[in-house]
Amino acid sequence: QVNVAEFGGGSVQAGGSLRLSCVVSEYGYSTSCMGWFRQAPGKEREGVAVIDSDDTSTYAYSVKGRFTISKDDAKNTLYLQMNSLKPEDTAMYYCAAALGRYCYVTYLTSLSAQKPPNDVDWGQGTQVTVSS
What we know:
By secondary structure, the chain is mainly beta. The chain has one helix at about 100-110, and strands at about 5, 10-15, 20-25, 35-40, 45-50, 55-60, 65-70, 75-80, 90-95, 125-130.
């Protein structure tokens, strides 16, 4: 089991920025594909951004150019820098690790074409609210 803990959510106005952090309990080859997901009320969970061990990253079309995923291997931490936030970015944000081939598959297709993996150890999430 891989435990994750998300931090950094909050309430901002449209156009603002937030940086989410996720501390991963186990860090290594087995957890190499990691990512951020979000779920808005009444909607399914969707992929936002994923990053593989070689730092190859894939973004959802809706956030490309505004969000940046990164990781600090020395700190076992995954980040999501969110700029130019929009009200439609309002959601609970979750991070996940050990996603197996998910990074590879979404790189070849897209995040919108792939549902989040089923066998994921989700954290409690962090709420992001963007007001207009």
